[in-house]
């Protein structure tokens, strides 16, 4: 037997040791009736965040994974506990987050007997994960845990599922070799593909650089901004790619697709090449682009499952950082088109001027109609919270403002975590706790609509118990604003149905019950004072919520109104 073999008293002690090996500082979940994992963690430094809802537990693990770049771990019971996680698993898969979901299971000898909470859990979860396994033999558990992490972090990252039946809880597990390295392998693209794509990039006169979520944690040396400068390329991110590049860079033009507004949107009609780094070119990222057959794209992704072949161009399989470093060497001495660089600067300046005009217009409307302009909320938040803050977002009607540059800007030290293309309601509010535990000491702010925050309210005791100083900014428009405006579009204002109403939220009393601080702001003049006080409180290590009364009609920039899944542009 290998001299580094180790025998654990139970399967869950083996899991606990594997978590130590991964460097996992927090596990999120809600155990079933068996407390074996908690017992195994008693003598370790690993924190177990006991959640009130299994869906939120996976959201928190996803936030932890996206913020840290390490696997996020969620542990739950069996049967309905597993099915409650499925929305979170769907989000983790869409967000390409390396999440390890561990669940209990019915013992092998009782399968098919109608056992308590029996469910074919593998069939339920397998369509949503990269890999799923049920471990029915104790000697196979170490290999299963190693493989789960390898699958989660490599290629296109994503969630994996490990089921440990109850009868393994009391069985000894022997690990016969050291745990395998848990870090993702970063692959260098094929040299011929690098040469071909470098030649195409050199020939382009009006390039745009699109940075996606697959570039997260791959730009510590600021090589992406340097590459944009080498090409004279306009620099965009997808929503999930925010926080990767410095948004105060002179070539940065905002978030692509759904969140690109005039005059910057013209760049997408004028470009002759898009270089997409770590983006799967989802619908929201390409919203408003020219027709698919008109715009060539060089797309760099880590796994072939992320390639998009419906557009002309070429795919590059490899690590974003290694690809950009290789291109930079091959393109040394490249001279960008000065006219294109000037064009990028021109529209960027015009965007800033238009944003100022919108802020003034919102102020005038607020004086006449009440409510606090969301653009002013974001500006005051930027002044109140240190620059290394991580903004964790939702994707509702008013909180969508935070996706629009320059109304919100992630500087060189800032960070961002957003929901994926699935946009499950309440993701950002729950994920913010995972982000805070992944990056202790870093400011974390959640901006959420009141509808999303209300879904999170059951986790206020979890938030209080965790001792994480997350600042929640809740934009109160009376409920589900996006749905209400869609209803108004088809039924007018006289509909007998309603998704919003002017009613007390009750958040003040709930916050106080769990020792959390609460403020309310209904006047723009109160924002700086309230948000500054709230952040000073959060900096001491306790969470706080600031509710802000906003108008339903305070639509994000460039949006004439919702039209189903996507908004109508002002010029449509």
From TrEMBL:
Domain Thiamine pyrophosphate enzyme TPP-binding: 421-537
UniProt domain Thiamine pyrophosphate enzyme central: residue ranges: 195-325
Superkingdom: Bacteria
Segment forming the signal sequence: none
PROSITE patterns given in the database record: TPP_ENZYMES
Xref: InterPro entries: DHS-like_NAD/FAD-binding_dom, THDP-binding, Thiamin_PyroP_enz_cen_dom, Thiamin_PyroP_enz_TPP-bd_dom, TPP-bd_CS, TPP_enz, TPP_enzyme_TPP-bd
Organism of this sequence: Streptomyces rimosus subsp. rimosus
Protein name per Swiss-Prot or TrEMBL: Acetolactate synthase isozyme 1 large subunit
High-level lineage: Bacteria, Bacillati, Actinomycetota, Actinomycetes, Kitasatosporales
EC number annotated for this UniProt entry: 2.2.1.6
Keywords: Thiamine pyrophosphate, Transferase
Named cofactor requirement(s): thiamine diphosphate
Family: Belongs to the TPP enzyme family.
Single GO term (MF): acetolactate synthase activity
Alphabetical list of SUPFAM superfamilies matching this protein: DHS-like NAD/FAD-binding domain, Thiamin diphosphate-binding fold (THDP-binding)
Top-tier EC class: transferase
Pfam families found in the cross-reference section: TPP_enzyme_C, TPP_enzyme_M, TPP_enzyme_N
